[in-house]
Amino acid sequence: MKIDESQLSQNIDSELLKRFVEAGVFYGRKKSLTNPKMKPYLIDLPQFNIEIFNLDLTKKALDEAVDYLKQILNENKTILFVGTKPAVSESIKEIATTLNQPYIVFRWPGGFLTNFVTIKARIDFMKNLENKILSGEIEKYPLKEKLRMKREYEKLIKLYEGVRHIEKIPDCLFIVDLRFKNHQTAYHEALRMKIPLIAICGSDNNPEGVTIVIPANDKAPRSVKFLINYLKERLI
After folding, report:
1. What is the C-alpha separation between 77 and 203, in angstroms, rounded?
2. Residue 4 above 90 pLDDT?
């Protein structure tokens, strides 16, 4: 069943609306999976068995996010970008590196916010191992120990590559898809530590406590890439 674009937005410029639609930003999930707290961001279209986002609210939230993130960057504060789903990890890494900000795209290390001192010690340990490997100092160790150190380094670099330069708890988190199991811990840690949170939320997400909710299709790579690029273009 084809949707009428005029049902999705009353205010977005036609060319931009076309880009939103082509990227599939307006698609939610099956209605049986809808989180009631996402209802205000949805359009009531009984003929569809999936939820449809109000793109005017999506665009408004994106622009609010741009203003908020610009303020953080102008104050030389830190935004931690989080997207560990394979479908979104490249887009998250790209915007973070463009803005010279930290990112986590492999797996959220439990306690990253609530036990930052321990996490920072692990990052420092990783960098120490890296120095030993790059300098050749590792060759002084017995073979068994050398292999153990290299395996440990490979495990740590996957986790902490994007946060190797972080020195303190970030000032803001940006997450794609709060419903994703690996992001649930990050979400709860941010709430516990009262860290501002910006999130791209699908119709099955729980947006409670989120500073800026960007209601949109958070599952499809094309949609997420479009949304991230929209933010990136305006932030640079």
Report:
1. 30
2. no
